[in-house]
Amino acid sequence: MFNVELKEVHIGKAIRERLEELKMTKTEFGRLIGVPQQHVNRIFERETIETKKLLKICRALDFNFFALFCKFPTNISAYLSAVALGNGDANNNLGETAVLSQLEVMKVKLEKAEVTERDLRDQIGGLKDNVEQLKSNLHDKDEIINLLKTNRN
């Protein structure tokens, strides 16, 4: 279990600070979230806000205000975490199930690679046999040419 430290946040004050940081007017902000400019001042005064509205504000101001309410630990047990790499993406998966799932995927890929390797080795063997056969044919032709030259003389 994670020890999440919850914090008291005056959400209206945090929103006002973000607005000032972006140098955005109250009118522009109100237009983005669909409220008249006079209601923007009320938002700044609020200590709490409805989740749906806060989500809209997060999108409008390109900032995750939800993250202000808690501080997650910076150290995570390596036993519980794994980074799964696939198709160039890195995903942080927690738990043994995710690790086992990735191991199964890798196992299937390895088995396919082994089959491909066997097939390629068989093809190489067949090509070597063909080369030996061609060398033998060439040797036979050289012998025939030498016999013909000898018979002409």
Detailed description of the structure:
The chain is mainly alpha-helical. It folds into 2 domains: 5-71, 434 Repressor (Amino-terminal Domain) (Orthogonal Bundle); 81-152. The protein is built from 5 helices and 4 strands. A two-stranded antiparallel sheet has the order 1-2. A two-stranded antiparallel sheet has the order 3-4. The model has no long low-confidence stretch (mean pLDDT 83).
Order of SSEs: EHHHHEEEH
Terminal-residue CA separation: 98 Å
The portion of residues assigned to helices is: 55-70%
How are the strands ordered across the major sheet? 1-2
Shape: rod-shaped
Number of domains: 2
- Biggest sheet layout: 2 strands, antiparallel
The tally of helices reads 5
Which runs of at least 5 residues are low in confidence (pLDDT < 50)? Answer: none
Cα-atom radius of gyration: 36 Å
Give the percentage of residues in beta strands. 5-15%
| Overall average residue pLDDT | 83
Number of strands: 4
Secondary structural class: mainly alpha
